[in-house]
């Protein structure tokens, strides 16, 4: 409704203006230009600008049209200024009764006058500026002054220094007046229209800002002049206008339009004045923009930055000297200039002042400011880690004052990590940071911790000192300490309160955290393995705090130990005493893991973990065997067996574990040679376990696999030939006999055959028969004398009979039958190279 | 009547150097514009009077004379005419006129004490009056002159030349301070000044400056005053806030102003007031007048 009315008013006005412009042009274009009439028409259309019925946007439309009309007039004047004496015209238009048309005409003629040589430019400028004070209506005044600045922008004299000064003075004054008008607009009209008023003011802001742009376009200004004469005035106005919209916009304009070096030089002044800004001003936006500009400047022109900073310090030095001379003070403050040229110090001190002077400043703003300061320090002083700690010390003090909206601090928390990531920096973060982090909600903490860790992993940062390891894990402290108490909290937050505490199903986040944590163990590195071990111990001391979640990390830790032992073995520097330490560490850790299984917190996962424990033990046993510590190795085998007996309950797991045991034992060399009795104990025990398995098939397979333990032959690869020459001389074939016990092997096979036979399902037993045949062939090939042709033939016959009994057509035995066929095929092939096979009867 | 008393001759008054003389345009009572020759104080007025006969008839007359008159006409209680200057020359003695005649006249170095003035109720005029006496009605021909007194010192200025500075206001509503550079101006001068707002609680819409001429005639009990606003000049648009200073600059040269006269021949005075008017959003007017003294250079 209102809007329609507005646009109607606008249309009417536009129509009048257009008509009058046409008339004016007619007067000017006729052969004898009727200049006075033209002026009258101009005055008539200018009267339309007196309206107060238009919103700024519509007023602007009108202004544009009028501007064009006046441009026509001034073009005419420029061409004909010989005939129309401009000074007289300038006086003539003063008689216009209404101020708005009068001033527009005055500026139009004045600007033409200025463009003419030898015109009293400065006087005209001053006069136009002074007279413009007559328009006090915000919108009309703003547009009038904008017109003034538009018309004069190309004409302002800058040749001599004094002219430049006047020009700057002119522009600044115009700026100040415009800003006053702009701010005044806020207080006009009904309070219910405040929203609209604000919108209108935003539309007008560019008019005010244009003055600053104009100043910035004066090439003749150097940074010192800017510091001395321009900025203080502008800032003073900005501070005094006490309007947050204006302050925010104008400071932003200052930051945007003036060169970076200016900002660097005037930082103190700028910051100082922002302390006096009005309430409700969002400080962060300005400061963050400023800091970002400075950072970009540093990135683009680091050399230039250096120059200016040194200039700055000489400047402050001079100033100080000056002051000292002035007050004749002693030179107690000699250190001051150095610190004051440090940008970080400036901002840091400033942030303190900010908190003191502006208690209403919210924490969100502060956090953003601190974040920006952090970034500044990181790009200007990348080596100065102490700065960051200071910032966090300050942040810590702040965060203690509030408990609300802690999430706003998260970006700050991440800044040192994500911005120009430097592991050294992260590792030199001190308690301030950690305490700061711990004040935040655990969700944020752990996300940050994960973030840190991922960065480290990404960059493959090696941790080689105690401090580094400690610092890193302290940074991740949230995962170790908060596990049980807060875990239930987060769980209940995420999944509702139903989730029971003893259900160890972890959320994907936690799993990924611990995955990263486990990976982090591999970052620990020291060239000295013993030192390395110490670091691992420290790591463990951190990990141990995470309760049942050690199951994610301990295995890695233990493998790291195994790795160390292997390394030491290879360089042959394994110290027995140290080794014992390693072993103790290992078994202690492993026991801790096992207790998790035994106290039942893990329920279904327990078996798997127990298996892991056992496998770890086996690995340890194997590595110890390889390093010829057979007694220790034996111990670990025994431990493995104990775990097998006590903790592995599930029959499938048992079978798998047994396979692992057999595999590991089969790989052992030194224990077989060094202490065969012990080895025999181990392998007999293994075979016994095998025969005690629950399922017949498992029993059968375990037993025939165990048979290999009595028949350990190392086949040499081609490359190994030379090294094992002794073996080669003793035997024709390329194999080293480690343990051969024909009788035991046969016993095992027989036993498994019996078990297979006792299977009720004939197809299963058939399959087992075929498998036993394969094993027997292996032993036959490798020279077990008790596995004879006759034995093999017997087996083959047995299988063939079973097939016949079941009936060849029965599909249930397809697989075993085919397996059998392939085995026979293999025998036929072997027969071609090995004469012994010829005697095997096939069919 | 006019047929009956038809005047048998034409009288024309011509002034020397009429074409090159400075003239002034004045609005006559009927609203027409007249061009009048301008004379200064002490300047000789001379010219010719031509008498032409109509129908070539002989005209008998009782003598022809030319007068230079200065008079003040007031319209209070009917028209009163008061002559303050009267000079006469006889151009011809009684006799007959047979041919057209031209007579020269000259009033040497006439003191013209006052300036010509046409106001609402008062006129001060100088004119040449040619009278041809007849037995019936005299034939009279008048020709008005316009007199400027240059370098006239402002009359009645209390102090030689003082700036006007004033502090006015309405309690808790408005408080302004204004200042004009001087209180006496030549008619081609510029009034320069400024207005300083100390307190503004009114919603001011705009502010203007007006020049008001006040003419008063007659003696105190029957004195008649008449004011006329000659100029209205907007000097501010919109509402100022505390601390604003608004410049004033008003060129006088383009307006039809009258110098300040005080007690011209004890008959009338014209004074000019500078009035500062503030108009608020409800169209209420607040004003402050102060007299300025105008003079002609």
UniProtKB/TrEMBL annotation, chain A:
Family membership noted in the UniProt record: Belongs to the VPS35 family.
Region Disordered: start-end pairs: 319-339, 484-508
Keyword DNA damage: no
Protein's name in the database: Vacuolar protein sorting-associated protein 35
GO molecular function (one): cargo adaptor activity
Compositionally biased intervals (Low complexity): 484-495
Key words of the record: Membrane, Protein transport, Transport
A Pfam family per the record: Vps35
InterPro entries named in the record: Vps35 (IPR005378), Vps35_C (IPR042491)
Gene3D superfamilies assigned: Vacuolar protein sorting-associated protein 35, helical subcomplex Vps35-C
Cellular component annotations (GO), alphabetically ordered: CROP complex; cytosol; fungal-type vacuole membrane; late endosome; retromer, cargo-selective complex
Annotated source species: Komagataella phaffii (strain GS115 / ATCC 20864)
Residue spans of biased composition, Basic and acidic residues class: 319-329
Keyword Protein transport: yes
Entry's localization field: Membrane
Function: Plays a role in vesicular protein sorting.
One BP annotation, GO: negative regulation of endoplasmic reticulum unfolded protein response
Membrane topology category: Peripheral membrane protein
Automatic annotation (TrEMBL), chain B:
Alphabetical GO biological process terms: intracellular protein transport; protein retention in Golgi apparatus; retrograde transport, endosome to Golgi
InterPro entries for the chain: Arrestin-like_C, Ig_E-set, Vps26-related
Pfam family, one: Vps26
Cellular-component GO terms for this entry: CROP complex; cytosol; endosome; retromer, cargo-selective complex
Gene Ontology terms, MF aspect: protein transporter activity
Similarity comment: Belongs to the VPS26 family.
Protein name: Vacuolar protein sorting protein
